[in-house]
Amino acid sequence: MNLEPIGVIHSGFKEKFGIPRQPGLAGSMQATIELLPEYASEEIVRGLEGCSHIWLIFIFSACVGKGWHPTVRPPRLGGNRRVGVLATRSPFRPNPIGLSAVKLDDIRCIKGKVQLMVSGADLLDQTPILDIKPYLPYSDALPDAHFTLADSYRGLEIPVVFSEQATAQCAQITQATSLPIAEQITEVLRCDPRPAYQRSAEREYGIRLHDYNIRWSIAEDEAIYVHAVDSVDASLL
């Protein structure tokens, strides 16, 4: 069985560190799925405009060839407890296939290209898309479902404080690109991307978001401080 991608996603997540661990946690993050030329026809997406959400089936391309283990240490469990890989959504799997439900914002068929504009995707930029399916509320939403290892999600409910420098940089970026960069940074950082074994208030982290390097820290779990939003390409600022 040979599976070939039908498209690729263009997202603001340029590296694995900082990507929310589940879809929908950073709803302001928008992305574009571009179908490959052999699939880029209006017929292939006919009727999909009636969907508010879609399923993306994709390849964890950054993990291909890196192997897998029967058990993993999920960050959700503090990284200290081993569970079976099939009881997690770890990207290091026998077959590195992912599944995410995202919001479908628009479909664009222009000059032989087919693009799907989505929001809330938790996919690395350039991730290959294997398939797209409609989200069916009457069967896909299961109100009685439960999972004891992850029965709920709670992000960091602490203030996100931007320095004067970061505030000015965000305003400049939004004016130049229309990106709601401050809102996106806030959503991503409240997902707490820190590794479970790194909780030092002294440590400063960096996240690549779009074409910007976000420098930030968390002080005693009381506030998230955004120190700077530096352009990777100086010509962007």
TrEMBL record:
Look up keyword S-adenosyl-L-methionine and say if it applies: yes
Source species, domain of life: Bacteria
Q: Which UniProt keywords apply?
A: Methyltransferase, S-adenosyl-L-methionine, Transferase
What are the BP-aspect GO terms? methylation
SUPFAM superfamilies per record: YaeB-like
**What CDD domains is this protein classified in?**
UPF0066
InterPro entries tied to this protein: TrmO-like_N (IPR023370), TrmO_C (IPR041369), YaeB-like (IPR040372), YaeB-like_sf (IPR036413), YaeB_N_sf (IPR036414)
Chain ranges of the TsaA-like domain: 3-144
Q: What is this protein called?
A: tRNA-Thr(GGU) m(6)t(6)A37 methyltransferase TsaA
